[in-house]
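User: I'll paste a sequence; please echo it back and then give the predicted structure.

Assistant: Echoing your sequence first, then the prediction.
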Amino acid sequence: MTESARHSVSVAAVVVDDQDRALLIKRADNGHWEPPGGVLELGEDILTGLRREVAEETGLEVDPQALTGVYKNMRSGIVALVFRCTQAAGRPAESSEAAQVRWASRDEVSALADPAYAVRVTDALDAAMPPAIRAHDGVQLI
């Protein structure tokens, strides 16, 4: 297998509060609004990586409740596993990776995030079973 034929695996947490709002971060590197998450490290299990990424970006500890979607960025070869989570401890805070952190309603998510990321949040808010399986080009669903 060539290097360009490899995939990477990322995880994201749609942390939902008691008002059915989702926690979003405004990424420091590109200014895009997304649920917190990132690429798994080699040898790291999925839930440990999910918890690590959320803690690094927001300062929160989370409890994953359900896998709500699997998404593939067809351009970059990244497969993302998205989980609906609840807040276990901590308070949302900015970090070196998150220029802003905020709770957003469903309508606010659709206005703030690119469609490829907004759908991850709305799929998690809907918590439909089985999990959604979708592809995108980095911005738009395909």
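The beta strands are 8-15, 22-27, 33-34, 37-39, 61-73, 78-89, 98-104, 132-136. Residues 46-58 form the longest helix (13 residues).
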